[in-house]
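hiii, so i know i said id send this last week but things got crazy w the move. better late than never?? heres the sequnce for the chain we talked about at the cafe, plus the structure i predicted for it. fair warning i was half asleep when i ran it
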Amino acid sequence: MKMLRGFVILLSLMFVLGVMKAAQADMTTIYGPVYITKATSEGGKDKDKKKETKLTFTALVPGEGILIIKNGGDAGKKHRVSSAEIKLNGKEIVDEKDFNKNVDTLQYNVQLLSTNELEVEVKSCKECELELTVMGEQALPPRTPLNLPTR
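okay and structure toks below
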């Protein structure tokens, strides 16, 4: 009898955990890809290079998210950033030491708010590109009322 009771409890826990997992939303792209570039203007002056970028985006479901950074973006290895800082909602996510010319892709778990501010400061490169994509939980479809018979 104890064995049967233990089996029923185990089966119940497995069911509850399975339902909880099924209730979680799927991760999907909620922002991006966005391309941050730093290139010298035709005059070739360093002062014309764009160093800081501020981006604002919304998350339909605040909470867990993922920031994906592709160093060099679509331009490839020759256009990789060697030093940059990235902040999300004022919190430093990526330090300048996380970058170098050999780094292809970086991925970070982040906490998303309803409205988010992403700050990117490219510190070192000649002509470079970063591709940023933010993944977040997909909003669940609205619940429809059940058509229950009335008495």
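btw Confidence is low (pLDDT under 50) at residues 19-23. thought thatd interest u
miss u guys!!
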